[in-house]
């Protein structure tokens, strides 16, 4: 598979798209990935790490070419009217190339999850049974404008022993092609199959539709991007999807809370960053402490310019803030806006979270042991916290060493997904001529 | 939800089917299950066990009624021309009722997987992070004629803290309704929501289509039955499916094998039972030992009446056996038939398994340490074995204590699925006022 190695300019991308039968092209990627996946299963940790470090060297050597390819993407982006935020995500500079190179070194330094055997136990029949962690096989990743995702996704899939097919945003196609060439050079240098990482070289939107409909070649799809992309992929995929939808996260401050901790957590969970999925969007306050806590918090939020929208009881305490509507309770603002509701106890708080939340990350602030245990056990979210900011819901903060995404699904991987989420476990049985009686 | 409690006879089932809007009915089951699932999440082990034991008592008390309901199903089955094998699977007698009751006691005695926290570790930020095992939520199970599956599926879902919606075969509807009444009585007696176990009371085939299309109410579907059912469910489901397709299992006898062990394993893997998914369907023999092993095995198989079909080299050694076709290599016979191929070493054996196998269970017989390690690491099947019969691939043999099925999927659960496969893990974070810096 060398379709992605030649530097791609505007014109020859159009040629590829025009001249290629999309189904045949995607099928060829799928077949090559399946074959490469079988070879990747048997690779040593040292071999995989050698490829990662070789990729880092090739990125370093290709620095001027990367910047040049990226400049073509940026020029085209400006011409086609991409907004400033999108252009910023698309841009590669020396600092971002440094970060990609550093990322490859970090992934190389991570422990290899493949081959680990859990719970090997002897059974009455005489056999020993355990579960071995092994690669998933072929992973399809669909993402948008940031070209550094190409390196990040490739490195994590490779370290976990998988082949991958990467489909980046068409606005980043020249950057992605240039990065893909470095990745391929690294794979070849380390003696790994070049098709272990394939970047879809055609910009035809139908390519995504095919990628998510080839269960014979692709074991799982990870879409990374906006809600509409993820919803489309989830709806249409015939391959299992590890998806990340909304983060409508809550902090519930119980009547027994230490109000200093509650203040710090409520401020941090909202204001540390506004655009992240683990940012608090609704604050729930137990009625007995609402009068003491809310005015203090309102001043804190005012300093950060956070707009508050409250329930009737909140507005009785805080006065002139907007009323929260039904929609507010279910909204992921991703902005300096916070909905606040006064509730009567943990039951009402948990019912609110269950009804309006997105089962992403929810926290309780309490000094009551029994309530903490209950909240942990019963709140059905991918991360549930006691006396900590929701902003901690993150692969690096959790010690996964890497993060390919945060799953809001329940099956296979839930919450931050690291290398382990890119693997599966099979049973291994060790005997010495044992037969079943 | 009391739709399933009244004893159902042929006529009033038709009435329900005719008078009910299937979508509205299935939606009502889904909503009730979702609500019951939320209650189930908070149940203690003792409460769940009390319900299981109460169900056992109600089955015991309802014995005459169960036999009577089953007799109606059998009569109808004979009238509609069900074959003898199907009628046998459908039949309930005292022994089978004993087994259902005993099964409930066994599930009550199993350790509760819910609430277990793995890997709780302190992070540099000061928080502690671990993963807590929690129920999946709502499980839909679609099965065929055996009415005892109703008890088995209900008990495992309940023990793992889930609500479930069970859709049995229409040929078993009276038996299933009678069993459902006992289950509901047990739930009520233990103070659990009756909707924690709901048996679909309409026989309309469209019910299945709706059950697998309600991701808002159902978290996972487990189809148990023939290949066509499973393929249909997998193709049409909008809810994740834990599925079990073919078992085209292999034993590869390496040149270094102890031929006595190889003989025992090859005979056991084929002849212990013919109709099971972990039965060997193809034997691969390394060329240097084919001449010594195959004639001895052929006599052994002849004693069991197993028909052999071989590759050209096998036929050179064994003489008058049928030639194996391309189709034979990919066939799950579920019968006393075995395909045999002579190969040149482990590479060719693994390539054959990868190409023709179903990634269910494959074994190597060898005394070579390096080959054993390699086969374990590289064969991409849900169970991989060294010097043991493929027949061991089974939840009870593996010590899971129970088995809801064997998954041939890679995500979430792979291989025999016990209680753990009916749960998921969420992250729990314990802090003391910690915020992200």
TrEMBL record, chains A, B:
Record-level Gene Ontology MF annotations: glutamate-5-semialdehyde dehydrogenase activity; hydrolase activity
Catalytic reactions of this protein = L-glutamate 5-semialdehyde + phosphate + NADP(+) = L-glutamyl 5-phosphate + NADPH + H(+)
Q: Which residues form the Aldehyde dehydrogenase domain?
A: 5-301
Keyword Cell membrane among UniProt keywords: no
User: Which domain of life does the protein's organism represent?
Assistant: Bacteria
What is the uppermost EC class here? oxidoreductase
Asked if the Swiss-Prot or TrEMBL record annotates the protein with the keyword Transport, the reply is no
User: Which Gene3D superfamilies would you find in this protein's record?
Assistant: Aldehyde Dehydrogenase, Chain A, domain 1, Aldehyde Dehydrogenase, Chain A, domain 2
Concerning Pfam families, the annotation shows:
Aldedh
The record's keywords, sorted A to Z, are: Amino-acid biosynthesis, Cytoplasm, Hydrolase, NADP, Oxidoreductase, Proline biosynthesis
From the Swiss-Prot or TrEMBL record, state where the protein is found.
Answer: Cytoplasm
Question: Main localisation, per the record?
Answer: cytoplasm
Q: Which InterPro entries match?
A: Ald_DH/histidinol_DH, Ald_DH_C, Ald_DH_N, Aldehyde_DH_dom, G-glutamylP_reductase_CS, Glu-5-SA_DH, GPR_dom
Entry-linked PROSITE patterns: PROA
Role this protein plays? Catalyzes the NADPH-dependent reduction of L-glutamate 5-phosphate into L-glutamate 5-semialdehyde and phosphate. The product spontaneously undergoes cyclization to form 1-pyrroline-5-carboxylate.
Q: Which family does it belong to?
A: Belongs to the gamma-glutamyl phosphate reductase family.
What is this protein identified as?
Answer: Gamma-glutamyl phosphate reductase
